[in-house]
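Hi everyone,

Forwarding the result from last night's run.
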Amino acid sequence: MKKILLSIVALCCTVVAGAQQTDQISAVLQVEGQTPQVFYGASALKSAIEAAPDKGGVITLSSGQFSPVTINKCVRIYGSGLQTIDSLDVYQSYISGDCTVNLPEEIASPHDIGIEGVYINGNLKVTSAVDGLTLIKSSVKNYDTSAPATRCGIRQSYIREDVKAHQMFIQNSWLGERIYPLNDGSSIVIDHSILRGGNDFRYYDDRFTCRNSILWNSYRASNQTYNFCLSPYNNEFTNNAGCSDNIYNVGESNVFKDASNADYSTARTFELKSPDTYIGSDGTQVGVHGGDFPWNKIPSTPVVKNLKATVSGTNLGVTYQAEVRNQ
């Protein structure tokens, strides 16, 4: 509830500034107990991060294109959406290059950085030790961890290429290419996702656990563990230790309602052709519509309607209706 209230305040500031869907790009920084600050232009996100304290800052973005940034504070960033959906009042917040997480050593853990509702037209790179980093309803090219990062998660997101991680829990996401660990001590769990996986995993010697997901690559390495996963191809799990209850050889045309492939497009919903047949370990359908966080690209920021602003001397009066969208 506290997050929603903060988001409402931030979004109202953004709308008053003319930036829910507008050419006026903005970022609103909120810190509890302080007056919100509004920054404008392509560098607005960068300026908001610079003005934020080491911990506790909440940044709400308008739609529009923002410059690449380095996140060196423990902030939570809420964008307008990873793609524009006019009918749902969702408009894309777009970062035009890499987003790098690089925290100074003096910022103590836990860090709990969050990114939601943003399309990053580059990589999300983690170059320092991080304790707590979550990517939600967003898209990146590669999620590239080069330093130990614990309590990391990806949820309801579109990862266009690779995920390289140390400790990661991936839920209800579309994964384009390779999934591989940072080192032998890494732990990666994938649940209720789609692994498009166009590359041969053997070269990368992947070690991860995957469950309740859809696998679209016909080769699986023997050191990967799969349970309750669906594949259109022949059984590739026979020799994998710990694998059980997988559904295989169903044919490409029998998986999704709308297409005989697992390719991503902005319009696709990835609904199963037989959701009552392909059931996972938790009793819900395999793939992105099962589990705790069914596939949904609507960000958690509320939409503001019937906004009215009046000026009386030095006072600004604002009335509005704020609706939390179906997430």
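The chain is about 5% helix and 35% strand.

Cheers,
N.
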